[in-house]
Amino acid sequence: MSRTFVIIASKAVTTPFNLNDLAGSAGRMDLVCRFISQSLFISHGVRRDSTAYAVLKGPPEPVKILRFEGGEVRYLAPDERNIAGMINKALKAEVKCGWTRVSPGVYVSRMELADLLEELSERGRIYYLREDGVDVDGVELINPVFVAGDHTGVSPEDEEIILERCSEIVSLGKVPYQADQCVTILNYLLDRRAER
Ligand SMILES: C[S@@+](CC[C@H](N)C(=O)[O-])C[C@H]1O[C@@H](n2cnc3c(N)ncnc32)[C@H](O)[C@@H]1O
Prior knowledge:
The chain has 196 residues and is an alpha/beta fold. Helix 1 crosses helix 2, helix 1 (29-40) packs parallel to helix 5 (179-195) and helix 3 (113-120) packs parallel to helix 4 (156-165). Helices cover 31% and strands 26% of the residues. An 8-stranded mixed sheet has the order 6-7-5-4-1-9-8-10. The chain is built from 5 helices and 10 strands, in the order E-H-E-E-E-E-H-E-E-H-E-E-H-E-H. The chain has helices at residues 29-40, 80-92, 113-120, 156-165, 179-195; strands at 3-9, 41-42, 45-46, 50-56, 64-69, 99-103, 106-109, 126-135, 145-148, 168-171. It has a single domain, classed as Alpha/beta knot (3-Layer(aba) Sandwich). Bound molecules: S-adenosylmethionine. S-adenosylmethionine binds next to strand 8 and helix 5. Residues 129-131, 148-149, 151-154, 171-173, 175-179, 182 line the site of S-adenosylmethionine.
């Protein structure tokens, strides 16, 4: 079974940035790095069945989408700075049609959110994460693709695109979590369900 996590990073920049200012001039790239880290890494290992996508919508060249495949990545460590360095490498790459590989398991694309969700609907069921959704406890999650917003949530335009393609709006409860915390909770939940 696969698991896929998508973050829509509305402010994250789309050209190389200063590694010393991830939360400032890089447009909350710290959130994106933590999201990728929590999607892929466990203690001393990588989740081979997990994939993380970051939809970068900040200036100056939106949209760019990053893809990190747990089954393929090498030369990647869980800390924010290391992941940010890899993102910088992806943002320097000349992006061709479709996905451009920048390192083992790391890809960049110029596709739009709608195209990404069309592609991911082939991989599994799409669940939109929102506090007011149906309780995740009652939802069967088969090859789930989870879509989350950043610190600003999801714009009305992007929400329309997601709602057209998702199976369900799913909630982790009333507490508002950061996107990377949602990933940690969902990975735990999926791990526990797999053990049973
Ligand atoms: C920091 S929250 C967004 C906060 C933003 N101010 C808002 O009101 O939408 C980041 C994202 O995590 C997800 N999220 C946070 N808490 C959640 C919860 N309890 N259940 C489901 N998704 C949640 C949502 O996708 C949200 O867009």
